[in-house]
Amino acid sequence: MSIDHSDRRLRIPVRFVDGVWECDFGGAVPVKEGSHADLVVQRAAIKDKDFLAVMARRETHKVLEEGTVLIVAVTLKWGHPVPKHLMQLAKPWDWARDEIAKGYFDIWGAGDTYFVEVRLARPDPKQARRFKTDRGGLWLITQGVEAIGLASTTILLPEEIWPEPVASLNHAYTKLSETFETWRISHTGNIYRRVFYQESNGKWYPLDVLRNRALDKQDKEIARGLWAAFMAKMTSAASSRK
Predict the structure, then answer these.
(1) Residue 35 falls within a domain, yes or no?
(2) What mean pLDDT do residues 195-210 have?
(3) Fewer Cβ close by (within 10 Å): the C or N end of the chain?
(4) Tens-place pLDDT, residues 45-60
(5) How many domains does the chain divide into?
């Protein structure tokens, strides 16, 4: 995923003096009006125990529903052929070049990169208890206002690859890697970069977008709606403490 240098974060040491945040080396913090920042402090510095409890609470927020199609990027290499009937399940890189949102995939290679569809499926008994539901899907896991990961229910792969639902996206990637990436010694990968969901604009984005509260474009309606609902919930929790 490409990052503009102007979007990179700058760490500024500050201290709280007489109700105002100042640079640790002196003077006001020189930022624009309305700027957003993340404040990192020791838990012991928080005076309001109820606020601390809210910020430490871990919660789940449903993002995608059961039946949603995701695509998984796999990399083929010369000298490690894949059976023809399995290759028919993979979308070639030239298809994906127009379908993947620009700037969100940096491992293109003609003839190397393919995409395979998987589907969010029903929860297993443990997942049903964890998410308190009998419906499958994908959930954002938060602690306070921090996104700490994504978790899914079971995943359906193409039946030719594996006939039964597998336990998670990580398990699904492993099965696909074992099938298409026979050249690898290890069949694990970063699902936040290798698994893509489809936004309402028809483009595919890596799952990492769903974890990113600092969204830069309006076209990510699913991700933006998720974080808008989440921040509204946090605002409501803060208001109820007053």
Answers:
(1) no
(2) 92
(3) C
(4) 888 888 888 888 888 9
(5) 1
Q: Which two tokens stand for residue 143?
A: 């602690």
- Dig out the tokens for 188 from the structure: 């694990």
Q: pLDDT grade, residue 109 (50/70/90)? A: low
**Per-residue DSSP letter, 45:** G
If one counts every other C-beta atom within 10 angstroms of the C-beta of residue 59, the result is: 13
State the pTM of this model. Answer: 0.81
> 154 lies in which domain range?
61-221
What DSSP designation does 209 have? G
In sequence order, the β-bridge partners of residue 60 are 141
In a domain, 4, yes or no: no
Report which secondary-structure segment, H or E, holds 99. Answer: helix 93-99
Residue 105 inside a domain? The answer is yes
Q: Which residues of 152-176 are buried (b: 16+ CB within 10 A; e: fewer)?
A: bbbbbbbeebbeebbebbebbbbbb
Torsion 141-168-88-94 (CA) sign = positive
d(CA 202, CA 58): 32
C-alpha 213/C-alpha 228 separation (Å) is 9
